[in-house]
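dumping this here before i forget
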Amino acid sequence: MDRWIVGNWKMNGAGAEISAYAAGLRKADTQGWGPRNVHVAVCPPYPFLAAVRQALAGLPVGLGAQNVHPAAQGAFTGEVSAGMLREQGVQVCIVGHSERRALFHEADAFIGEKLRAVATAGIRPILCVGETLAEREAGRQLAVVQGQLAGCLAGADAAAESLLVAYEPVWAIGTGRTATAAQAQEMHAAIRAWLAARWTAAASRSIPLLYGGSVTAQNAAGLFAETDVNGALVGGASLKADAFLEIVQHA
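structure:
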C-alpha cells in the first residue's frame, strides 16, 4: 500500500513564505520519496494555489485544495468548483473536514455531492470522518464514523478507485491530544471492514486510510507502524517545511 502525507494549511500562510517553504522542501532527499511509494501533497488556501504550484515545480509534491463546491458553476458567491481546481493543477481535495461540518454545518449528503464532483473532475477526494469527544466517551465512535461513511459515499461507487479516507477524531484536532496508535488502528481497521462490505475486500485494500489529529514528527512513526494507517493528514505541523519533512521521512 502506498503511503500518503498531506499537509492541510487551513487558513494560514502568506505569499512571502511560500518560496522559503519550497526551498526547505528542496533540501530534502526528495528523490527517495517515489521509490518508497510515498505521495506528498500540500493544501494551501485558495489564493495561494497558483503560487504554491509554481514554487513546487519539479518537486514530487502534489497540490491539494481544502474545500470545493459541488456545482460546476452558478450563483455561489465565494465558492470554487472542482473544474476551477483542476485548472489550477489540484490533484487532491479535502472534503468533509470536521471544521467544515462544525462551523459551516455541512451534512453528509452535501459532502457526498462534493466528493462525487471532485472525483468526476479527475481529482482524488480525501474524505474526512471522525467522532467528537462526547461521542467517543459514549462509546459511539464506530457508529458515528460508519454513519458518516454511509452518508457521504451514497451513490459514489464510481469514486472508489480514487478515494482516500482520513480518520480525524475531532477531539484530537489542534488540541495537542492524539489518538494512540492502537486507537487509530482500531478505527482504521473498522473503516477498512466497512469499505470491504460496501465494495469488495480488494477494493478496500486499495483505498489509503490516513490519520489526522495533531500528527507530529514525535508520534508519526508509531502511527505509521500500524497495519491500516497508510499515512497522515497533517495540520499545524505542515506549516513548517522542516517539521513536515520529518513526518514524510517517517513514512
